[in-house]
Design a protein that fits this description.
about 300 residues; Cathepsin D, subunit A, domain 1; 2 domains; 6-stranded mixed barrel; about 55% strand
Length: about 300
């Protein structure tokens, strides 16, 4: 689920994915390696064309920060998706009930997942950004594949065997997988105290273009607040503060003087210490089978 917030002075669009669901029983079948072009909406959201139940293509946002795939009611109607049950959606704006359904086959190029549980939710907030978006492909879909996400070429490449891994090099960072969530170890340093550091567990999130830290992490770092704001999101109105992090270290990558979103409301369920946007990197390789990522991988020399 995508919650979009804009902070005026920081000039960053911050998407906070704070919806957590776990579904079991989806099966996958990868027939061949595939490459797909994607477009960026508002320089943040990765949008690709997917085939659902042999219909489409339909535009989906690829969101590693969302546990479960979501479809707009209009798409659920087109696909004649049956209501199967109800589920509680937890966000920083509150809790609400949504319909649970299932897509027989969701296809990305030549790769597909069968019997995929989905939530039916009004995506009106996303439609304001791009009216063509009809769904969000979450981790219960993406976690079936290994893939290379390349922001420079606007390309996602899904791996068949180990051909991508064999062709790249770089630091392998372990993924702590918790109910489809990809948690990555990192370290942050406060702007106003060079000796104040905190080790963090951040949710890898392709739907955000800004670092997000929850209350405990921001307290440990004693982050300076730049601005306070209240923004309307798809889940309701939420409070938001903007701070600065002097240094963020993820593996061998370092980022200096980063804007950070500090939600004033804690989520009902824990996601570690916050969100790590994939947009910080030019490219990344996600290996779900072996449980690691490679940030800004380099091509091996022959």
């Amino acid at each position: 689920m995508i919650l979009l917030k804009r902070t005026r002075c920081a000039r960053v669009a911050i998407r906070v994915a704070l919806v957590y669901f776990t579904f079991a029983g989806a099966s996958q079948s990868i027939q061949a390696q595939t490459e797909m072009r994607f477009r960026l909406v508002h320089d943040t959201l990765i949008v690709v064309s997917l085939i659902a139940d042999n219909q489409g293509p339909f535009d989906f946002v690829l969101d590693t920060g969302a546990d479960t795939t979501i479809v707009d009611p209009s798409l659920a109607s087109k696909l004649s998706l049956p209501p199967l049950s109800r589920a509680r959606q937890t966000t920083i704006a509150g809790v609400r009930a949504l319909t649970v359904s299932s897509i027989a086959t969701l296809t990305a190029g030549l790769a597909h997942v069968e019997n995929l549980p989905v939530l039916v939710q009004d995506l009106a907030a996303l439609h304001k950004m791009d009216p063509r978006i009809e769904g969000i492909a979450g981790q219960n879909f993406l976690s079936h594949f290994n893939y290379l996400l390349d922001y420079r070429k606007h390309l996602i490449r899904i791996e068949l065997a180990s051909e991508i891994r064999d062709a790249i090099q770089g630091d392998l960072l372990p993924i702590e997988a918790i109910e489809h969530r990809m948690m990555i170890a990192s370290e942050a340093q406060s702007q106003d105290c060079a000796t104040l550091r905190a080790k963090l567990r951040l949710l890898l999130d392709s739907g955000s273009n800004s670092l997000v830290l929850l209350h405990r992490a921001s307290q440990v770092l004693n982050l300076p607040i730049v601005e306070s704001a209240s923004e309307v999101t798809s889940g309701g109105q939420v409070g938001l503060q903007v701070g600065r992090v002097q240094l963020l270290t993820v593996g061998s990558a370092q980022f200096h003087d980063l804007a950070v979103a500090l939600p004033t409301t804690e989520p009902a369920e824990r996601i570690g210490d916050g969100l790590l946007p994939t947009a910080l990197f030019q490219s990344l390789y996600v290996n779900n089978r072996e449980g690691f990522i490679v940030l800004n991988p380099r091509t091996k020399k022959n």
